[in-house]
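Example 3.
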Amino acid sequence: MSGGARLENANPLIFQRTGERLRTANDEDEDVADPIDDREIFDLIRSINDPEHPLSLEELNVVEQVRVRVDDQENTVGVGFTPTIPHCSMATLIGLSIKVKLLRSLPERFKIDVHITPGTHASEDAVNKQLADKERVAAALENSQLLEVVNQCLISNARTG
Amino acid sequence: MKDTLALLQKFNAHPDSRCWYVAWNPKGTLLASCGGDRAIRIWGREGDSWECKTVLQDGHQRAVRKVAWSPCGNYLASASFDATTCIWKKKNDDFECLTVLEGHENEVKCAAWAPSGNLLATCSRDKSVWIWEVDEEDEYECVSVVNSHTQDAKHVVWHPTQELLASCSYDNNVCVYKEEDDDWECRATLEGHTSTVWGLTFDPSGQRLASCSDDRTVKIWKECQPGGGQGTDTAWKCVCTLSGFHGRTVYDIAWCPLTGALATACGDDGVRVFKEDETADPDQPVFSLSAHVPKAHSQDVNCIAWNPKEAGLLVSRSDNGEIAVWNYQSEV
């Protein structure tokens, strides 16, 4: 991806990672059902790699827990992501990686909406429309080269576990 | 609301993959389904249950998006993400691949036969609609390529009796095509939806067209003669919009040729049937929700189809590979 070419965003701001989740007594109790909450979704996507830099989406503040909305009862998950610069050409790829990660990790009953944080990208409507079109997403994932790039973003690093 | 939509049966058609489409044969005795596993399955009724009669594999290298039966019931056309359309011919209880139509630049989204059986239309993510002619020797020739859409063409459907074609697209529009001097052209562009239009269906008489969209509405369009009506471009007007009924994208819509009931397949996992108010002005039709099954499937409903011979028999298809068969009863 980065090869020898100039990076789009050579000096991104790096943010601090949130600590691990505190476990409560209820979490350990087998009889209490664990609803899926914002933090759990965030834990799934925070360590997705950025396609350009050796950093996670959390470290680049592309994803934040506050931009995740889950409704376990209604089976909906909404994730807003913020590209680091308004003309980022990787936006669709990043959105697709988030979507694929959630599709692979969550129970089938969930409807997953991944969109760009409003006002942060020049082509947000076009990117959002593509991410919402499941036929396009399915066809894109049948493309082995694109699938390989997405899988590279989803490889978890040893330090983030 | 005394009308009911009762579940008759549910079965898993494409294990481990998404089921994209299902189509009844013209006699209403067989179902063809296709999906992400690149196969087409033919199902027949055995007593009260449905059995898989044949599996057509090795026809495509990628997912099969839609299948269509020819009006005589002897041929099947399958549209695939591998950019080809395969024509299958029925031989006893099996089907063999007759020919593979190439030409589209990328995924073929739909294939449909004209009522005469001599024409086939295909549409693709490459934004074009192709019209093919077939002769008595089963030879296919492309006669027109029309580029009226500015984005992916999602679905094509023929008028029930005339040689009139309609297509809908990711560009939010519907286009209507007619043949003029041996060439097919777009005669009307129907604008109004605010997002991708996924499905189209003509009413039994062919005078009206219903479209369903990602904007969660269904629109009914009627052809109206412009003043003077001298065989120039026809005009289609939106005469009704059904909004507030669907929670998410409406992926498919089907108008029953026998009863006039309108069924929709929605991304909120629900199946709905709408009935037309008999007393309303034909130029301002009124539709009401007649039956609704909120959790018809555990995932998105992709496809819905009425049986062409048995009134009230409806089949729906879902992302999890399930097919459900329903019986719709209406108090007239």
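The longest strand of chain B covers residues 4-12. The radius of gyration of chain B is 19 Å.
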